[in-house]
Amino acid sequence: MDETESLNRAINEEVALFPYDTAWPAQFEKERDRLIELFPTTFLAIEHIGSTAVPGLSAKPIIDILAGVDSMSQADALMEPLCRSKYATSMEYNASLVGRRWLMRWADGRRTHHLHLMVYGSPEWNLRLAFRNRLRESAELAQQYEMNKRLWASEFKKDREAYTAAKGSFIQQALNKAGPSI
């Protein structure tokens, strides 16, 4: 499958949630270790984020990885080497992003990983970690999020952008309730 075909499949893929899989943390660790081996001095931190990083939470079975870099120019310089290292991306999509870059990895005919490059310690970096941590700390919040994700997955089964937007609103509300320390 070429890059254009894989990107088109990702864009048009139906939203489907799967029960939590205890293999997800090990899948993250394996890819984190591979990235560190390929780019040993590049990343300031590599974190497992998204629903696959929250024990017990249903998710799309795609491991979200947050990789911290010094600057967005460093992130941009990594795009081509990462694409030579089994990632694919849309330069057009990335041009629309502020403060992050996005790539995906395919294996066995499906997306397995999303890689988000961000400036380490930036507000967006901190927000992503704060939401993951809130879900890990609050079973009630995680249950609310899962219930809503199931509703959104049903409502927006064929509209990934609407599904993602609905999640974004919930995330923002959850972080606002957490207070100014975030």
Number of distinct helices: 7
What is the count of distinct domains?
1
By CATH, the superfamily comes out as Beta Polymerase, domain 2
Described by the principal axes of the CA atoms, the overall outline is: globular
Order of helices and strands: HHEEHEHEEHHH
Counted beta strands: 5
Low-confidence stretches: none
What is the annotated CATH architecture?
2-Layer Sandwich
**Gap between N and C termini:** 41 Å
Please report the first level of CATH classification, the CATH class: Alpha Beta
Portion of residues in beta strands equals 15-25%
Mean pLDDT across the residues is 91
Largest sheet geometry = 5 strands, mixed
CATH topology: Beta Polymerase, domain 2
**Strand neighbour order, sheet with most strands:** 1-2-5-4-3
Q: What percent of residues adopt helix (DSSP H or I)?
A: 40-55%
- Rg over C-alpha atoms, rounded to the nearest angstrom: 16 Å
Which structural class do you get from the secondary structure elements?
alpha+beta
Protein name: GrpB family protein
Pfam family, one: GrpB
InterPro entries: GrpB/CoaE (IPR007344), NT_sf (IPR043519)
